Amino acid sequence: MCGPPGAGKTTYAMALVRRGYVRLSIDEVVWRRIGGRDAGLVLETERYDELRNQVRQEQRRELVELMRTGRDVVVDYSFWSRAARDEYKAIVERHGCHWELVHLKADRATLERRLAVRNREEGANAVTVDEGLLNRYLADFEEPDGEGEQVRRQTWG
Length: 157
Ligand SMILES: Nc1ncnc2c1ncn2[C@@H]1O[C@H](COP(=O)(O)OP(=O)(O)O)[C@@H](O)[C@H]1O
Ligand SMILES: [Mg+2]
Hints:
Elements: H1 9-18, E1 22-24, H2 26-33, H3 39-42, H4 45-68, E2 73-75, H5 82-94, E3 101-104, H6 108-118, H7 131-140, E4 149-152
Parallel strand pairs: 1-2, 3-4
Helix pairs in contact: 2-4
The structure holds adenosine-5'-diphosphate and magnesium ion (MG).
């Protein structure tokens, strides 16, 4: 997956899970490990980043194991940097597997509208993204261009 918060990556990934894919999500594991509800807020940013990096490493190994056993996998990360996309493509190719880069696109007003709804929810996949954080994500986001991406702009609401 590739796209900013609110683009619909997790929703899309969950549809693949219903078709038999294994979903890898850092948000999901970090949420469980720190004990759920609002726990992200009580961790200092440094500790939170450390935990996210640790889970990322674990899931990289998990991805390799899953590929070896022939499973279909959806990596539910934002993949905002080209370097990260290139790195994971190389891992997939090294194991003789096939990657797809699904770039979910939505305009800013749509992202804001969806996040306003989602921010009222709780859970691993509804981590609060306020305006400042959305600005930062959008500023840093390196849009895939000529990377073999499939661009999707579906919207159901
Ligand atoms: N294609 C879509 N059209 C309209 N709303 C969507 C779509 N995909 C997801 N949503 C809604 O938008 C919000 C953000 O979706 P989510 O899958 O959590 O995004 P992401 O994982 O990319 O941050 C959720 O409340 C979700 O129900
Ligand atoms: Mg998500």
